[in-house]
Amino acid sequence: IGDSADFDEEVESICPFCGVGCQISLKVKDNKVKYVEGINGPANEGRLCVKGRFGFDYIHHDHRLTKPLIRREDAPAKGLNVDPANWQEFFREASWDEALDFAADGMKGRGTEVAGFGSAKCTNEEAYLFQKMIRQGFGHNNVDHCTRLCHASSVAALMENVGSGAVTATFNQIENADVAIAIGCNPIENHPVAATYFKQFTKRGGKLIVMDPRGQALKRFSSHMLQFRPGTDVSMLNAIMHVIVEEGLYDQQYIEAYTENWEAEKEHLKDFTPEAMARVCGIDAETLRDVARTFAGANAAMIFWGMGVSQHIHGTDNSRCLISLALMTGQVGRPGAGLHPLRGQNNVQGASDAGLIPMFLPDYQSVMNDGVRSAFTDVWQSDDFSSEKGLTVTEIMDAVHEGKIKSMYVLGENPAMSDPDVEHARDALARLDHLVVQDIFITETANYADVILPASAFAEKSGTVTNTNRQVQMGRPAVPPPGEAKEDWWIEVELAKRLGLGWDYASPADVFAEMKLNMRSLDNITWDRLETENAVTYPSLSPEDPGQAIVFADGFPRPDGRARFTPASIIAPDDVPDKDYPMILTTGRQLEHWHTGSMTRRATVLDGLEPEANCSLHPSTLRKLGVAPGEHVRLTTKRGSIEIMAREDRAVSPDMVFLPFAYVEAAANILTNPAVDPYGKIPEFKFSAVKVEAAGVS
Ligand code: SF4
């Protein structure tokens, strides 16, 4: 933070936190980012939230990795916490040549024993190179990233029923809507700049229907607040659709022109009467009817959803319901109409588009399709690789326990904090023969590393990122990396050379040019255009077209151009409360912290605002426990136990505890359930049975 005139240089780039993708101007003095301002990007129009405005001094934190490190032969056991100020007990400094040789030697020739976790925090080019390295270098598809932990089930449902995994309309289209549903998301905390558009929409008369088991600040702006029982999304949404069918409120013309399987959906919905479903979801029948009439009566309506929808063993079914609701009312492909899963990390959309997924090559092209693989191996000038889907994030950890995977490359992810049942993941990391970690800090995952490669923060490198709106945007370097740290793409290229892959990229622009050869989504989007325009939305229909904010006006990328109704039935959560674990644990983010906290907890203002691990409980629950706000409680599930400061929060129902997941000292994922959705393979982070006690009581 500084005087507005007190800088040497201004560099335009993209906020590295959430998927909104706000454009920023970094004000640089003496090779330091002094402060940040919002600029006129398509997603933010100059606006920023507290993270985007005040969350950047982690870039210059003295914990930054500045040299490659190799684990000492006499180091204490893997997994012990490495003090960033005293890492010499665990690691020794190495030259880049030695560290890269060491990293490559532990992976070379090991085929399916190797797996890779790439990162949604890296650029599109870095994500593309990462998946290419695993596929070309080891001949298989065991490569994944944190999409598996956030919206994999949404993507599974969208691919199945709409034919595309991205949003059908930008969130800014809410300005053309008259009704919107926000379900399982908390935009004021998690997508704060998007939330400003939601608030404006309500101020000009738009009806906002908020659906969430937890109350939230957006409630103040809502026409309806449906605080339904956790895990009952399908019953509530099917009841709403039942009313639309029963009262003939659906759009017959649209259904006939653009969809398939309507009769099966209609038949399926017969049993989901609002009266019966009210007993399941806890929302009275008249409210369900009112919501159905309000949504179906809209001229233009949008549906937004977040991880409250996706992080369930029935996450794909939840999304199927939302897609069906939009299709039966014809609310896709027009201004102010559409489906929008709000993406979490800054580049989770782009990393997924770039093929950092075990079942898809770039642009969601199936690894099982021989023609698709050969199109890529032609460009890569390499041999064919496996046509089998690779292992997902949680399956990779299971495979380590089974002795099938022994060597892992982790770029910018932190599975020792982010995986469900995290002690299982930590145990897996400790069992590896060889772990390469590429990051900007010694993360909890780096505590298990054999070699650590010091990488670059976003403000130190070039590259494109893609936000929740399908907007491909240009990130630019403003300051040099500290010490000997390098840009991630450079590290990947050097590693690939040592794996014998013969890569010869001179810059991220070269990588982007290669990506375009097999990614039709990038047609008409060039590096030069992005340098000039900062952002282009895909699809872009011509070199002049800034891109299509709304897609699927004339049909869908599916057989016969038709979207599909896939009926969904009620499936109970996996780990339901009982007498030993009588309450419900749900996890999520707070406004000030982001993901595993490695960046925001090193940002002075953000950590100052939220310095201590905390959970939220209803006042009546605290009274029953005899715990005052600010005192500690013990949370115990079938996986483990943590002690944590309790906050009073009326937004949480009396049978529930909300637990943010950014705090290593009380890691939420010690408690979470690793059971996964069968389609998206996403864990059920949003629902575990939990016992809550006053700390000190046993
Ligand atoms: Fe950054 Fe998201 Fe905040 Fe925008 S809304 S400033 S992208 S964290």
From TrEMBL:
<dbReference type="GO" id="GO:0015942">
    <property type="term" value="P:formate metabolic process"/>
</dbReference>
<comment type="similarity">
    <text>Belongs to the complex I 75 kDa subunit family.</text>
</comment>
<keyword id="KW-0411">Iron-sulfur</keyword>
<keyword id="KW-0001">2Fe-2S</keyword>
<dbReference type="GO" id="GO:0046872">
    <property type="term" value="F:metal ion binding"/>
</dbReference>
<dbReference type="GO" id="GO:0003954">
    <property type="term" value="F:NADH dehydrogenase activity"/>
</dbReference>
<keyword id="KW-0677">Repeat</keyword>
<dbReference type="GO" id="GO:0008863">
    <property type="term" value="F:formate dehydrogenase (NAD+) activity"/>
</dbReference>
<keyword id="KW-0479">Metal-binding</keyword>
<comment type="similarity">
    <text>In the C-terminal section; belongs to the prokaryotic molybdopterin-containing oxidoreductase family.</text>
</comment>
<keyword id="KW-0004">4Fe-4S</keyword>
<dbReference type="GO" id="GO:0051537">
    <property type="term" value="F:2 iron, 2 sulfur cluster binding"/>
</dbReference>
<dbReference type="GO" id="GO:0022904">
    <property type="term" value="P:respiratory electron transport chain"/>
</dbReference>
<dbReference type="GO" id="GO:1990204">
    <property type="term" value="C:oxidoreductase complex"/>
</dbReference>
<dbReference type="GO" id="GO:0043546">
    <property type="term" value="F:molybdopterin cofactor binding"/>
</dbReference>
<feature type="domain" description="4Fe-4S Mo/W bis-MGD-type">
    <location>
        <begin position="8"/>
        <end position="63"/>
    </location>
</feature>
<dbReference type="GO" id="GO:0051539">
    <property type="term" value="F:4 iron, 4 sulfur cluster binding"/>
</dbReference>
<protein>
    <submittedName>
        <fullName>Formate dehydrogenase major subunit</fullName>
        <ecNumber>1.17.1.9</ecNumber>
    </submittedName>
</protein>
<dbReference type="GO" id="GO:0016020">
    <property type="term" value="C:membrane"/>
</dbReference>
<keyword id="KW-0408">Iron</keyword>
<keyword id="KW-0560">Oxidoreductase</keyword>
